[in-house]
Amino acid sequence: SREVQLAARPQGAPRPSDFHLTDVTLPPLESGQLLVRNLYLTVDPYMRGRMNDVKSYTPPFALNAPMTGGAVGQVVESRAEGIEAGTLVLHELGWRTAAVVDAAKVRTLPSLPGVPLSAYLGVLGMPGLTAYAGLLRVAEFKAGDAVFVSGAAGAVGSAVGQIARLKGASRVIGSAGSADKVQHLLNDLKFDAAFNYKDGPVAAQLRQAAPDGIDVYFDNVGGEHLEAAISSMNLHGRAAICGMISQYNATEPNAAPRNLAQLIGKQLTLRGFLVSPYYSMFNEFVAEVGGWIASGQLRFEETVVDGIDAMPDAFMGMLQGQNTGKMIVRLGEA
Ligand code: NDP
């Protein structure tokens, strides 16, 4: 198996020298284990946090050891009852081409027509559930709300905006980091308004895109975006604080938001959340979002990079916005 190890803890933006690739020999299977050939791997923003040596909700990655993360693979050999060779599985030993996995730690995947296996790492996986639970449960979205989502062309954000539209939002507004992404939001994902946050101050662009204000803000970015959203929020507005990617590479503390006093007068609710407690609604989520995908009402984009050797670049590229929709590393086909 070939795997990506963390060679050094990144200072600021990760660099190629923070990673190294190495070939390892896998141990023989013990009872209850599976040998899995990985087909699709994911790179996610939260992994940047795990590269730091700080206490967080997940422990840091160890140096000179393989990193972990979501992976879709195919069982090559099984010593577990009920799982045959050929079975498709979702598991957490990503960042490598093959793995010995405990059968108790995998989820077997159906092979659905029209749904690529990589979708289980994106729109029908952790990022999709984050969007679904964050919007509907955490922000308590209701029909008629005007919704603003940042990071709107990414894996989570593109699902948030479309779920809001399909659930009856009065207006869906998104921000993203390029003119092409803005066109994608407007033309492909049917957002009502979208802007490039690099074109000028977010507050002014948001005010223009949402002249009647917003009721819900889904925050993937933090900083200036969160400050702008607070300023545009209507009475009793709610924000789901999902991520703050503008700060993940920061070496200095962030200044914004400077307008938190508005929480009082407008009686706003800002709620941080993790997706993990919401796996209890996974089946409901897959049924509803899977239905929208099958009927063509919800679209999902992927940016696919080929080969394990390109995985560090895929990760660094995702942090810089090189992806539209989910960033996926493809190793092979089932
Ligand atoms: P994305 O697919 O959205 O990829 C990351 C995107 O972030 C890039 O494409 C880039 O797009 C954008 N970005 C990078 N730097 C900045 C910046 N300085 N300002 C604004 N945008 C920036 O990733 P995900 O959909 O997987 O994740 C989105 C967010 O959700 C992240 O903050 C992540 O940490 C969070 N998250 C939280 C979870 C939870 O349990 N709370 C679970 C999963 C994700 P652009 O070109 O637009 O700049």
From TrEMBL:
UniProt xrefs under InterPro entries: ADH-like_C, ADH_N_2, ER, GroES-like_sf, MDR_fam, NAD(P)-bd_dom_sf
Keyword annotations: Oxidoreductase
One Pfam family it belongs to: ADH_N_2
Ranges of residues in domain Enoyl reductase (ER): 14-329
Domain of life: Bacteria
GO MF annotation: an example: oxidoreductase activity, acting on the CH-CH group of donors, NAD or NADP as acceptor
SMART domains (UniProt xref): PKS_ER
This protein's name: NADP-dependent oxidoreductase
Natural source organism: Deinococcus ruber
